[in-house]
Design brief:
With 332 residues, the protein is of the alpha/beta class. It has two domains: 24-206 and 311-327, 3-Layer(aba) Sandwich (Rossmann fold), CATH 3.40.50.300; 211-308, 3-Layer(aba) Sandwich (Rossmann fold). The chain contains twelve helices and twelve strands. The chain has helices spanning 2-12, 18-22, 24-43, 65-78, 107-110, 112-121, 131-140, 168-171, 245-255, 272-275, 287-290, 314-331, and strands spanning 52-56, 83-87, 99-101, 125-127, 145-149, 161-166, 194-198, 208-218, 235-240, 258-263, 282-286, 302-310. Helix 11 (287-290) links the parallel strand 11 and strand 12 (302-310). Helix 4 packs parallel to helix 6.
Length: 332
């Protein structure tokens, strides 16, 4: 039932119909509420003592924030920055708690995205329903830059740099909630410091992020498949519970796989029952889904590890802007 409702909603957000026209005042009302909320919260926003970089989006669903947060965090750390990351830890068991992730913890306790970020970066992450509280915890740990995984619309938190990740597919019918996928209008992109578009087809002057398959490994043994043994040109099952499952299918298609996509709601946990109908086929899952697989899952499946690739040195540009902010702060 949940899967059916999820799929139906996504389809409705991709088109415009008479229903959308009739109900358009709902989106107009949502827009007015959004504007008033942004104005009011911005006036009383919490200002940290260190720069905050917001990595967000204007649409619902997966926009690739997690891989970008990982890439940016590692780069800034390599430049000598004491990086801290904040997140709400979506999908965790106790969403109202605040805790610092500085060692490996179960995905059900911290959320699948946070568990994956920690595993890839080993950088302190504070998860909390209140981003102000999370920032204060990281400031106490002497972090000199804070990266917020999501939070573009949380105007209770002041920010020095905004990075918006977007893709044409995720903009759908370009209508606001509840009739479309947008949390804020497309014009919001003009306010950001950096806008990164996800596509496999680069366009002139746009900052493009695409994904490549870095490796494929068995979910239980961790054994890497030799590139020559990847099931290219073979029928595979792409089973995912992510915000934009179409991107996973597109990635595999682009790499030469013949894909049948099985889509579960975002942040759902893949179980033995989900895998069983396809146990005699080659099952591929995402890193984010793999982080939640329990040891009780015995059916073979393979984890597709990805890496982001940019057509411009966008991460270096963010670092340069961060340095400029730091010099201005010291001179004041």
């Amino acid at each position: 039932m949940i899967v059916t409702l999820h799929s139906w909603t996504l389809k409705q957000w991709q088109r415009r119909s008479y229903m959308h026209t009739i109900l358009s005042p709902l989106s107009s009302a949502f827009y007015l509420v959004t504007l008033a909320r942004r104005y009011w919260l911005s006036r009383q926003a919490y200002k940290t003592n260190v720069p905050v970089i917001i990595i967000g989006n204007i649409s619902a669903g997966g926009n690739g924030k997690t891989p970008f947060v990982i890439a940016l965090s590692l780069y800034l750390q390599q430049q000598g920055k004491r990086v801290g990351i904040i997140s709400k830890g979506y999908g965790r068991r106790y969403p109202k708690s605040t805790l610092c992730v500085d060692h490996t913890m179960p995905a059900e306790c911290v959320g699948d995205e946070v568990a994956l970020i920690w595993r890839k970066t080993q950088i302190p992450i504070v998860i909390s329903p209140c981003r102000k509280t999370a920032c204060q915890r990281l400031e106490a740990r002497q972090c000199d830059v804070i990266i917020s995984d999501d939070g573009l619309q949380d105007y209770r938190l002041a920010r020095q740099i905004e990075v918006i990740l977007t893709s044409s597919g995720n903009l759908g019918n370009q209508m606001l909630h509840p009739l479309g996928p947008l949390r804020e209008p497309v014009s919001r992109l003009d306010d950001a410091d950096f806008v990164i578009e996800q596509t496999q087809s680069p366009t002139d002057n746009a900052i493009i992020m695409r994904y490549e398959i870095e490796s494929i490994q068995h979910h239980k043994t961790g054994q890497l498949l030799d590139h020559n043994n990847w099931p290219i040109d073979q029928h595979v099952i792409a089973l995912s519970a992510i915000g934009n499952p179409g991107r996973f299918k597109q990635l595999l298609n682009h790499a030469g796989f013949r894909v049948k996509a099985i889509e579960l709601p975002d942040h759902a946990t893949i179980t033995e029952d989900d895998l069983r109908p396809y146990q005699h086929e080659t099952i591929l899952i995402t890193e984010k889904d793999a982080i939640k697989l329990t040891s009780t899952v015995t059916i073979d499946c393979y984890v597709v590890n990805i890496k982001p690739v940019f057509n411009q040195e966008i991460i270096e540009k963010i670092h340069e802007k961060l340095e400029i902010i730091g010099r201005k702060s010291q001179s004041n």
